[in-house]
Amino acid sequence: MDQSSLLGFVAEVAGDRALRVEESFGDGFVRLRVGEAERRQAQHDIRCVEDAVVELLRNARDAAARQIYVATTREADTRTLTVLDDGTGIPAAMQERIFEARVTSKLDSMHMDKWGVHGRGMALFSIRENAQSAQVMASGEGLGSSLRVVTDARDLPERSDQSTWPSLGAADGEEGEGRRLTGPHNICRTCCEFALEEQRGCELWLGSPAEIIATARRHARHSVSTTDLLFSDDLSAVPIVERLRFASSAQQLMELAANLGLTISERTAHRILAGQIKPLRSVRARLLHLATPSQEPQEIDLYRDRRGLKLDARDVDEFSRSMERDFELLASKYYLELAAQPRVRVSGSHITVTFEVSKLD
């Protein structure tokens, strides 16, 4: 039997799907055959940082993300991009393999949009080939993802003006539809184009790591209650974008952020916790000059919740007796005596001890 006859027999028995797959890894992930990957070839490869940003955003969108956070910094020639999303996530066994050529989870759901075909299993491979590093910082099935990409501008160029935000020309379309963006084709404009194109599917924020942390702490969905984790430091089952809101100290915030690929100093962490770094408006809201909602969700202070727990009556009584003994220091110096046992009262985040005293003659 010649090759064409064999392929026809396989197609008849197993269907077209078998001819498109070279290897199956489980959990919906497959390695496409070369021919199938080439058929899905996008309009262009990764030629600049802005191309990488587009592919990372499309990757989050195709993972059903509703919230996408893009943190970016540049030091000398080094550009760092960290993209967090609340999508379906990546199984642990696939977090390295997704950067291999032709590996995709979109065998039957490749996406055609204004940037071309997405789903041929080459985008993340192309990014890693053109970057200093590309890795999954944190992810899990149903938990969303955090991907960090580090590039060198000498190898992968970018627009020289990365600070200018685009403007939206006047048109009849609502919510940016039919309106053209003007300005340099930088990361900001790339994110704006994506935000307008996908505004009915997801919301996008763009800023520095500190701004993204402050924003995620404010806007991330609360699928896990703080009370569920009150006595546990294990956040492995908590969605990626929600983990930052569980930090109760600057050191803990730094550690949680670093695990997600976001680097900040201790001073910056203190400023975030103190509310000195304000959350960002979404890219779409900024571009369309939309007003910020008057009622923002209240940020939960986990530290305060812990201090607000009720004290056991036996512990209160023992603490009161301890205060009574310590009061002797003042009693001997100032000729005082206690009129009653010290009263201990717990209110919110405060513990108040009241001493009723009388002066000795």
Please, could you describe this protein's structure?
The protein has 361 residues and is an alpha+beta fold. It has 2 domains: 37-306, Heat Shock Protein 90 (2-Layer Sandwich), CATH 3.30.565; 313-359, no CATH class. It has 13 helices and 16 strands. The strands form 6 sheets. Strands 8-9-4-3-12 form a 5-stranded mixed beta sheet, sandwiched between helices. Strands 1-2-5 form a 3-stranded antiparallel beta sheet. Strands 6-7 form a two-stranded antiparallel ribbon. The longest helix is centred in the first third of the chain and has 14 residues, at 49-62. The radius of gyration is 28 Å and the shape is elongated. The model is unreliable at 294-307 (pLDDT under 50).
Q: What's the arrangement of secondary structure elements?
A:
Blueprint: H1 3-14, H2 16-20, E1 21-26, E2 29-32, H3 34-39, H4 49-62, E3 67-75, E4 78-85, E5 103-104, E6 111-113, E7 116-118, H5 123-130, E8 133-139, E9 145-152, E10 167-168, E11 181-182, H6 187-197, E12 203-207, H7 209-219, H8 250-259, H9 266-273, H10 283-287, H11 302-307, H12 313-326, H13 328-334, E13 336-338, E14 343-347, E15 350-354, E16 357-359
Parallel strand pairs: 3-12
Antiparallel strand pairs: 1-2, 2-5, 3-4, 4-9, 6-7, 8-9, 10-11, 13-16, 14-15
Helix pairs in contact: 4-6, 7-9, 8-9
Percent of residues in beta strands: 15-25%
CATH class of the largest domain: Alpha Beta
Distance between the termini: 117 Å
Report strand order across the widest sheet: 8-9-4-3-12
Principal-axis shape = elongated
Low-confidence stretches: 294-307
Count of discrete domains: 2
Total number of strands: 16
Alpha-beta content class: alpha+beta
Summarize the main sheet: 5 strands, mixed
Do you know the CATH topology of the largest domain?
A: Heat Shock Protein 90
Q: Report the order of strands and helices.
A: HHEEHHEEEEEHEEEEHEHHHHHHHEEEE
- Computed CA radius of gyration, to the nearest angstrom: 28 Å
